[in-house]
């Protein structure tokens, strides 16, 4: 008898051990940012959901995936190459589409909820 997953899943960090990381050295622009990621959902086909947090710093980003973000706390500036820089803070929601290239600068430690589709 197989156990099925619950159909309702809270995006909650309780009981989830965060993955720790940092930008790749060749993408680092400024500071010493550190990441913590609580991935609470991972499905076949490349679907991920959870909470991500980063400390101040700036790095280059390039998206091959589609990502929905909702900022829970902090302040960041996301700048698109050849486009405008956008300041995001608690309460802001946005989508980064495949092909987005630019930089992410954490001004104040930022925490976001995310859903990623590869």
From TrEMBL:
Signal peptide: none annotated. This is Cupin domain-containing protein. It comes from the Bacteria. InterPro entries: RmlC-like_jellyroll, RmlC_Cupin_sf, UGlyAH_Cupin_dom. Residues 42-114 form the (S)-ureidoglycine aminohydrolase cupin domain. Pfam families: Cupin_3. It comes from Ollibium composti.
